Amino acid sequence: MTILEVKSLKKIYKTRFRGNQVEALSNISFSVDQGEFIAIMGESGSGKTTLLNIMASLDSPSEGSVLLNGKSYADIREDELSSFRRDNLGFVFQDFNLLDNLNIKDNILLPLVLSNCSRKVMKERLFPLVRKLGIENLMRKFPYEVSGGQKQRTAVARSLITSPSLILADEPTGALDSHSSEELLKLFSELNREGQTIMMVTHSVQAAGCANRVLFIKDGKIICEVSKHSPNEDITQKIFSVLSAISTARETS
Ligand SMILES: Nc1ncnc2c1ncn2[C@@H]1O[C@H](COP(=O)(O)OP(=O)(O)OP(=O)(O)O)[C@@H](O)[C@H]1O
To answer: pTM of the prediction?
Structure first.
């Protein structure tokens, strides 16, 4: 079942300097099925963050549309966008985006508090989730008292607490040491095996290798994709080959 459809996206940024224009995305189309784990790779400036921001409904395209579970973002009223995002999407960022003045428990519960959820529901959702993520002993600590890996697990718990259709992750391993990165990738793979749909922007081949499908962006266009033909297939070599072809093309152009 398709949950996300991205149709003919174009994004033009107008810069103030002499009215110059930057075409950050041109004619991007793809769809995401329920239960997929997709990585987006591309060189710096290729348009990954622009694409993620549009899929997150944080920015709007110049042309084209995005539909989540059949609902077009263009049909959502401005004052309903933040609750739509909260209910349907989970976010994991490179720098965790936790609130320093809230403890770990309150950071995780924040999306439910903003949705006026009852304490009973909060409790029912929180404990199984933090036990699963191995952070149940950190509930009273503050973000500055826990490790980077624990902060990212907290961010993952916060992203999952609303049971979103889709997790959008922007360089989730970017600020982690190699051990914590591996742990996070294992966690993402496990969540995906249980049915969670994930889209992740990454520069890391190791991270992209955990996805079932990798989309490669160059100059705002999807230039190719690779995918696993069986769940245990190692696609690292395929990813390296595409990255190397992109870099050779850049050097010879
Ligand atoms: N607000 C903006 N105004 C003007 N140009 C922008 C703006 N944001 C991004 N761009 C330009 O759009 C293009 C794509 O940028 P984007 O940030 O999406 O790339 P990226 O692949 O995420 O890069 P990185 O990996 O370095 O984060 C770049 O040329 C960038 O300079």
So the answer is: 0.93
